[in-house]
């Protein structure tokens, strides 16, 4: 790896570290594992594996890991569509989420059938469409749950910020825009920074679940003491 790319790579590794760290936090806490959705855990584990594979391939063979992005965005779209399908609860909205998912997956399958070479490069439609749809789900969930206990609230805010940044980069079109020559900092630095912010919001979600568990434990202790 050329030295000029070292700064960007280190920042990217920082994002990977926070993702794996968050995943381990959720997995090792048996009480929280009972409280959160299994699909949320699967989402974290799957993305950790994909990100590790992406970085390893990027080190061994630079610019040969673009195909990993398809697994990332499709798995993310699948797991989070299912998560919001369950969280939102409305029968009508749930049907819309299922319908949109089937339509989008059909479109993507057709795209790869007619243009197999697309697998080896970024698919702008895949990234923009799946990301924007998840942003809509997250916004609706926050609006719907505004007056309730805010489970998955921090996660949804972080997801919105991160995905809007990704969509903005691909809509801008110039994916090779270099902001600073030495050290090499390009437009992707924004995506990496917002990814780290996303991971911070996931950590806040973990902290929120932990605080709720401690609060419930304290309330149970108070009840027991009151019975003495």
Automatic annotation (TrEMBL):
Recorded superkingdom = Bacteria
> What keywords were assigned to this record?
Membrane, Transmembrane, Transmembrane helix
Q: Where are the transmembrane segments?
A: 6-27, 39-60, 66-84, 96-114, 126-143, 155-173, 185-203
Q: Which organism is it from?
A: Flavobacterium proteolyticum
User: Keyword Transmembrane helix: yes or no?
Assistant: yes
What protein am I looking at?
A: YhhN-like protein
């Amino acid at each position: 790896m050329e030295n000029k790319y070292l700064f960007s790579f280190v920042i990217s590794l920082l994002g990977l570290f926070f993702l794996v760290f968050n995943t381990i936090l959720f997995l090792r806490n048996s009480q929280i594992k009972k409280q959160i959705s299994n699909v949320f855990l699967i989402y974290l584990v799957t993305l950790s594996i994909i990100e590790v594979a992406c970085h390893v391939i990027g080190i061994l063979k630079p610019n040969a890991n673009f195909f990993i992005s398809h697994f990332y965005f499709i798995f993310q779209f699948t797991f989070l569509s299912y998560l919001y399908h369950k969280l939102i609860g409305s029968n009508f909205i749930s049907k819309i989420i299922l319908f949109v998912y089937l339509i989008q997956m059909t479109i993507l399958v057709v795209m790869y059938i007619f243009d197999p070479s697309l697998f080896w490069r970024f698919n702008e439609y895949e990234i923009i469409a799946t990301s924007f749809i998840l942003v809509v789900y997250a916004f609706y969930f926050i609006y719907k749950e505004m007056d309730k206990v805010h489970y998955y609230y921090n996660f949804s805010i972080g997801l919105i910020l991160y995905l809007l940044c990704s969509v903005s980069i691909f809509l801008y079109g110039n994916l090779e825009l270099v902001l600073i020559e030495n050290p090499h900092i390009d437009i992707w630095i924004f995506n990496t920074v917002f990814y780290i912010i996303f991971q911070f919001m996931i950590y806040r979600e973990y902290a929120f679940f932990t605080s709720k568990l401690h609060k419930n434990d304290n309330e149970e202790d108070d009840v027991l003491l009151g019975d003495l």
